[in-house]
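Record minuted for completeness.

…
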Amino acid sequence: MLSFRPVTLSDKTLINSYLNQQHTRLFTYSCEVLFLWRNVYEFEIAEFDNHLLIKTYVDGCHYFLFPVGNDDLIPTLEAMLDHSFCLDCAPVLGQITPENKELMERLMPGKFKFIPSRNEYEYIYESEKLASLSGKALQPKRNHINFVDKNYAWQFEPITSENIGECIAFNDAWDYNYNDNPESKRFIENKAINDYFLYYDKMPLDGGCIRLDGQVAGISVGTPLNDEVYLCLFEKASHIHRGAYTLINREMVRCYATGYKYVNRAEDGGVEGLRQAKLSYNPAILQEVFLAELAEQ
C-alpha cells in the first residue's frame, strides 16, 4: 500500500516543489488549503514514483486528487487503484480537469468513467475586474459600494496581532446567527477559519478586515497559489450592513491580489444562494472538474 500521512505546515516546501512542475488553478492544490481543511476532509499526502498524491476522506469514501508530477502517470494511477482496493473501497479520483480527463482517457482508454461534479466547479475571476468592478455587469456591485460610501465611515486594514482579537469576536458573532448542522458548508468552513486564527502567527497568509463606523464588519483571508492565481480562502461580512461583502471583496483584492491575473474564489458546494452570489460577479472561468470512477468492464 501507499504510505499516506497527515499534512503539516512543514510540508509547504515539499508540496510546492511538485506544484511548481505543473500549472494549476485549482483551490485544493495548496499547502495552506490542505492544512487548514485537514481535520475536515482528512487530507493526507504521499509520494510515489516522482508524483505527489493527495487523499481525502469524505462521506465515508476515500478519494484521490489527480496526482501532481511530470513522470509516467500510468504506474502512479495503478498504485492509487491498488491502494483503494486495499482500503476496501471503490476507486474514485476527484478534481479532474478536462485536460486531466483527456490525458487519463489517452493513457488508459475505457478504464474510467467521468462524472461532471458541478458542485465543485471553481469560480475564477480576473483580478482587475474584482478590483475595479468595472463594466455594466458589475454595476449593482458599484451601487453597493456607493451606498457604503454615503452611509458609513469605513476603512480597510490588514489583520495583525493588534486587531485579530476583534476579528475573532466578529467571526464568533457571525457564526452565532446560524444554527448549522455539522455537514453544512458554513460549519465546515468555520472549522478551517478557526484553525487560521489558531495558527495565525505560524502561517504567512494575507488577512484583511473592514470597519464600518469603527466596528469590524467583514474579514477575509487569502494567499497566492502561484504566479498567476491568488486564492480567496475565507470571506465573511455583516448581513445587516448593505455593501459589506462587496467592500471586503474589493479591498482584499486591491490590497493583495492585483499582481495576479486571476482570483480563485473556490466552489459553491451546491449552496444555491452562494452559487448565485458567485455568478453575480461574472467569473472569467467556471472551472469544470470531474469525478473519475472505474468503468464497468
